Amino acid sequence: MNVKRFFAANSREALAMVRKALGPDAVILSNKAVNGGNEILALDGEEMDNLVAQESRSFGNGSQPLAKPAVAANPQKILMGEDALLEGGALSPEALAALASRKNPLHEAEPVFAKPAVTRPMQAGPEAHKQSPARQATSSLPATSVVQSGAATKLSEQAAPEFEKLMSEVRSMRGVIESQLTELVWENTQRRSPTASVLLRRLLSAGFGASLARQIAENMPQNQTQDSALNWAKSVLEKNLNTIDDESELLDKGGVFALIGPTGVGKTTTTAKLAARVVMKHGASKLGLITTDAYRIGGHEQLRIYGKILGVMVHAVKDEVDLKIALEELKGKHTILIDTVGVNQRDEMVTRQIAMLAGAGNHIKRLLCINATSTGETLMDVVNAYRGKGLAGCIMTKLDEAATIGSALDVIVREKLRLYYVANGQRVPEDLHVANRKMLVHHAFKLRKSPAGRHFQFRDEDLPLLMAHAARTTAKELSLG
Fold first, then answer.
1. 415 and 283 in one domain?
2. For 199, which of 130, 145, 162, 179 is 20 to 30 Å away at the CA?
3. In this structure, is residue 64 part of a structural domain?
4. Considering the entire predicted model, what is its pTM?
5. Quick one: pLDDT at residue 140?
6. Structural domain tally of the chain?
7. How far apart, in whole angstroms, are the C-alpha atoms of residue 59 and residue 103?
8. Is residue 127 part of a domain?
9. Minimal CA–CA distance to 267: which of 353, 354, 387, 367?
């Protein structure tokens, strides 16, 4: 086992040396102050994995007889080393080696095997000598070896739970050490690069997730002021936010569009806004309206009112057959808009709704309505539930109600969705706008925080712990150019 010693003026410099020499997966065995500085004993992570793998093979090999384990020179020392390991304290190399090679308590007593009974030889008949080769090979083995092999297998099976418990403790210890190292790195980053720390805090305050904010802050160019760093971060977000260039993709090209999403996200109102834009550009005769909201009391009546104002008849459908019939009747229309029933993203009815739209034809483009007031975790649930075989894009709603929109932008960037429109009110059709990436990113950092929002703001001392947790979550690669 190749244990390496690192010495520096303080623990932070020593840890930096460990990370540089052995990488982020290094296992810290000892960290103590000595005369003139700090000493760390560390082991390469791969060596630790190999050590555990060897132990796994020794436990799983039940085909060989068990040997009596050697008695440690100082059992008390090894026991204390194991306790220190589980408590996250220092551990000597000798104690680690002894712990890794220690067997289950079931192995510590030498197995007692039954002695073969002594019998008088019997006269064998002529057919008794005609044995199959396999039987002859089995009969040629000593009886003691067969019994020992069976006992070894039994003891190995009994030791499996104990070994799994040991492995779980080792994995837990490794996770704690990695988190502590990440915390130290970010504490050092806050001192070395306060600009990166300020940028990180601004991204988090705007609502962006920790993993995305961390990726941006870690790749910030050198020698930036706070303002130039923020401008650079905005440019990165704008580059990764995919929006339509203009309305021609929907209004001019036309097609069949289904607005989907959870209950209360604003699908019906958004459908009415889009319908009004189509009527103003192409006339009422070029628009078809369909609603599948036959479950909610008065659900389709709201769209019927909007349709009556626009001079467009609304077709109500209940299932895939009705939808196919309605689409066939409206096939001459330039644009067809489908308002779907709102369903909780965790309801199995979502799957049936997606299947109904897919079964009616591949030409239906699904637009997911994303609520700007929802948390990132909720929006990820929504996207995963409604994605199906693919989304044409999304529409951000309730922009006027959101205290922050970073969570919504984070999910759109992370999942590489195409943003068509943003809705910021109830007026039809005024409160619907083509998505402008520059305006949205600027708006994310300019939203005024209410007095109650101070309880959800991050302080400098919170960042290392938050980043240690974010280090375990891998964000999708951003384009930083």
1. yes
2. 179
3. yes
4. 0.59
5. 47
6. 3
7. 8
8. no
9. 367
The residue type found at 359 is G
For residues 286 and 333, is the Cβ–Cβ distance under 8 A? yes
Residues 32 and 74 in one domain: yes
For residue 457, what are its two tokens? 């703001």
Q: Is residue 150 in a domain?
A: yes
For 215, the domain range is: 194-228+447-481
Distances (CA, A) of 345 to 35, 36, 100, 337, 368: 61, 60, 47, 22, 12
Q: How far apart are CA 324 and CA 63, in angstroms?
A: 65
Rg (CA), the chain: 34
Structure tokens at 178: 């990695």
Backbone angles phi, psi at 424, to 5 degrees: -135, 35
* pLDDT value for 392: 92
Q: Are residues 160 and 63 in the same domain?
A: yes
pLDDT, tens digit, 9 for 90 and up, residues 233-276: 999 999 999 999 888 878 888 899 999 999 889 999 999 999 99
Q: What would the two tokens of residue 430 be? A: 């005024």
DSSP one-letter code for 295: S
Which structure tokens are listed for 109?
Answer: 């007593």
Are residues 280 and 220 located together in one domain of the fold?
no
DSSP for residue 249: G
- In angstroms, how far is CA 206 from the centroid of its own chain? 21
Question: What are the angstrom distances between the C-alpha of 433 and each of 247, 419, 436, 448?
Answer: 10, 11, 8, 21
Alpha-carbon span 41 to 51, nearest angstrom? 17
Query: Amino acid identity, residue 430?
Result: E
Torsion of the alpha carbons at 175, 178, 180 and 183, rounded to the nearest 10: -130
SS (H, E, C) 346-381: CCCHHHHHHHHHHHCCCCEEEEEEEECCCCHHHHHH
Q: Is residue 439 part of a domain?
A: no
Provide the token pair at 60: 């799983």
Determine which helix (DSSP H) or strand (DSSP E) holds 8, and give its type and residue range.
strand 3-8
Is residue 65 located within the same domain as residue 160? yes
Q: Which tokens sit at 341?
A: 């029933």
Do 64 and 202 belong together in one domain? Answer: no
In this structure, the number of other CB atoms found within 10 A of the CB of residue 176 comes to: 11
Amino acid, single-letter form, for residue 168:
S
260, 340 in Cβ contact below 8 A?
A: yes
Q: Residue 388 corresponds to which tokens in the numbers above?
A: 């199906």
Based on the fold, state whether residues 249 and 320 are members of the same structural domain. yes
**Structure confidence by residue, pLDDT tens digits, 4-38:** 888 888 878 888 888 888 887 788 877 777 777 88
**182-206 confidence digits (pLDDT tens):** 555 555 555 566 788 888 888 988 8
